[in-house]
Structures are given as structure tokens and as C-alpha cells.
Amino acid sequence: MRAVKHRTPTGRRHRVAELLRERLALILLHKCADPRLKELTLTEVEMSPDLKQAKVFYVARETVDPDQVSLALDKALGFIKAEVAREHILRLMPEFIFLPDTGLDRAAQLERLFEAVKAGPEPEGHSNT
């Protein structure tokens, strides 16, 4: 009986995802003309097992309208693909799916909840006003 090899996050998928995240961040920052795209931080790239699809998670600054960022990414998608292809990183070009990263928002919400629980209920008769 053969031992089953478990895939680890340090495998090819993870290396390709990290490389793509770095390259995409540089493309958005230095080569895209749209100023809305310079306000993004790419937090993670998840590659499909066959490397044909890349989910790119991003966070936009609070001052930027999320709908405008989504429109800007859709508009620049062809240019982004062309730039990635020009760098000859991969043999096959993956399909890019840009998604807002909600993980940081959830973490901030949890942090506020923990702080509220830690502070405890305010005694009656005492107020900060």
C-alpha cells in the first residue's frame, strides 16, 4: 500500500500564488494609470489546484468607494493580464477573480466585541458625560 502524500501550503500552488500577489501589486501600483487602483492592498491570492484560476483578495482604503474600485478592476483586467503575460511568469494565464477581503473587517469587529466584554457593563449612576 502506498502512502498518501498530503499537500502542504508550501507547494507549487502556494509559491505561484505568492509570486502572482507580488507581481500584481507592483502592476497595480506602478503601471496602472487609474488612481483608484493605487489605493488597493492585495492581501492574498488563492490558486486553484490546476493553476487556471486565481482569486485575488484586496482591501481598499476607507476613503475609496468599493463599487468604483470594482469597476476600475474590471476595466483594467485586460491590461493586468497583458502585463502578467509579458513577464512570462506562468505558461498558462490564469483567470483572475478580484474579491474584496472581508477578513480584516471581521477581525476589527471581533476586537471591538472583545474590548466591550473586557470593559464590562458600566455601573448604573456612573456616566462619562
Q: Concise description?
A:
The protein is of the alpha+beta class and 129 residues long. It contains three helices and three strands.
Keywords:
single chain, 129 residues, alpha+beta, 3 helices, 45% helix
CATH class: Alpha Beta
Distance between the termini: 73 Å
| Name of the CATH superfamily | K homology (KH) domain
Helix content: 40-55%
- The SS-based structural class is alpha+beta
Overall outline: globular
Structure description:
By secondary structure, the chain is α+β, with helices and mostly antiparallel strands. The chain has a single domain, classed as K homology (KH) domain (GMP Synthetase, Chain A, domain 3), CATH 3.30.300. It contains three helices and three strands; from the N terminus they run H-E-E-H-E-H. It has helices spanning 12-31, 66-86, 103-119; strands at 40-47, 53-60, 95-100. It has a three-stranded mixed sheet, with helices on one face. The longest helix has 21 residues, at 66-86. It is globular, with a radius of gyration of 20 Å. The chain starts with 11 loop residues before the first helix and ends in a 10-residue tail after the last helix.
Blueprint (SSEs and pairs):
Blueprint (H helix, E strand, L loop, with lengths): L11 H20 L8 E8 L5 E8 L5 H21 L8 E6 L2 H17 L10
Parallel strand pairs: 2-3
Antiparallel strand pairs: 1-2
